[in-house]
Amino acid sequence: MRILLIEDEAALAGPMMEHLEVDHHLVEWFSTLDEAESAVRTSDYDVVLLDLQLPDGDGLGFLKSLRDRRINTPVIILTARDKVSDRIAGLNLGADDYVIKPFDLDEVKARIHTVCRRSADQRAETIIIGDLNISLADHIVLQAGHPIRLTTKEWRVLETLVRRKSKIVLKESLEAALYGFGEEIESNALEAHISRLRSKLGKDLIITHRGLGYGIAG
Ligand code: CA
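Above: the input record for the complex with calcium ion. Below: its predicted structure, written as C-alpha cells.
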C-alpha cells in the first residue's frame, strides 16, 4: 500500500515509517501541509495518516479541501488532542478513523487495514475487456494474466475511460482527470498518454473520436 504520512514530529514519523515498511508498505512522509498538498496532486495514495497540528496550518483544513475536491482516499487522523469536539469535527469532515497520541504502532497498522478494506469493498470493481482485467479498486491491469505497468497519469486516463465504457469521453474531461486544479495543462500530453496506453494494452483498445475525445472499443 502507498501511505501518505503528514506529521511534523520526526521522532514519531521515523518509527512509524520503519514499522509500516516492515510490511512492505510504501510510506511517503511530509512534515508540512504545503508539501502534502503537492504530493496529493501528483500521486495516488491508499491511505493518508494526518496529524492535526502542523507548522503551516490545521490538518482539518487539509482534510476538508481533499473532500471538497472529491478525493476520497481514506484518512486516519493522528492527534494529541483528546477533545471530543476535534474528533467529531474530523469525522464530520470525512475522516475514516482517528487515533489518539501516544498510540501503539500495531494499533495504527490495524486501523489502516480496516479503513482500506472498507474503502476497497465500496469501490470493488473489476472491468474485463477482451484479455484485459482492470481492477479499479487495486489499480492493477492484467493482460492475459500478466501485470502491465502503467504510470499514474496513464492509469488516470485509462480509469476515466473504462468508468465511462462505451461513451465518448471528451478531451476536456480526460485533461481534468489528469491534472489537479490550477496545474498547467501540457499540450499534447493527453495524446502522448493515449499513445503509450495503446502500445502497452493493444492498439484497438482506445478509439479516437475526432475533434471530441476518446472512448473504449466494444
Ligand atoms: Ca504536530
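Notes for the reader.
The first strand starts at residue 2 and ends at 6.
The helical segments are 10-21, 33-42, 59-68, 84-92, 105-123, 152-163, 171-178, 189-201.
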